[in-house]
Amino acid sequence: GKMKEGETTPSAQLEPPGGMEAETKAKGAFSSGMAKLLDPVVSEMDSRTDKILASQEVLTKQLDLFAEELGKFEGVDAVPHLSQYAEKLNASRRKLNKVDMCVQNTRERIGNIQRMHSQLLAFEKAQKERMMGVQDKG
User: Fold this and answer.
1) Alpha carbon of residue 87 to chain centroid
2) DSSP 3-state of 60
3) Is the whole-model pTM more than 0.85?
């Protein structure tokens, strides 16, 4: 039948306001804005992660040296209760390893975010170039 005033065809309802080109531009602007917003945060996280890993490495070396020195006293009766300190040292090393793994996981996630962002930008650029090519032919 006949369409009443104000009704639209199903295909017209699927098209976003302003058309597909406007939607693509809006998505591009949003994505670009988000990237600009997140870029300093990601850079800061990366920088802090580097500092954490460097300090973790220094701490690990110090703990290893301390453990080595404690090991020299094993079996010596004149130095009492070193075993409790050795246990605390080992507990600290385990905690340090957990923190190190957490930092490494965070670094991997940051890398994944950066990779996905780069892929998204490349996809949007290719899509924009395709749209421009379609317009040039039309």
Assistant:
1) 35
2) helix
3) no
